[in-house]
Amino acid sequence: MNNLNNQQILEVENEYWAGMWESLRNLRNNSDFKRVVLQGYFRDKAVNGVSLLAQDAVIANGQRSAVMEDLIAISSLEDFFITIENLGSIPPEDDE
User: Fold this and answer.
1) Is residue 94's pLDDT more than 60?
2) Could you tell me how far CA 89 lies from the centroid of its own chain?
3) pTM of the predicted structure, to 2 decimals
4) Which structural domain, as residue segments, surrounds residue 29?
5) What is the phi-psi region of residue 62: left when phi exceeds 0, alpha when psi lies from -120 to 50, beta otherwise?
6) How many domains, the chain?
């Protein structure tokens, strides 16, 4: 009985991640998403943030930690997308 419950939980979890992967795939095909998130947030905001870390005014005003938190947020969202890719794109024959 316990083994059956575990299998059901795994099936629901696999369906969840597969659905998330499909939604992420659809988003990545959307030109607005590409512009705002992939280009604007992941690339441009990240590069700008890294550049801010070396600015004298940012250092003098003690704002480096705030810039680092922004960079961590970017990294966290990108890591979540990677998690979706890794868990949601498992071919059906390999989901055991």
Assistant:
1) no
2) 15
3) 0.81
4) 2-94
5) left
6) 1
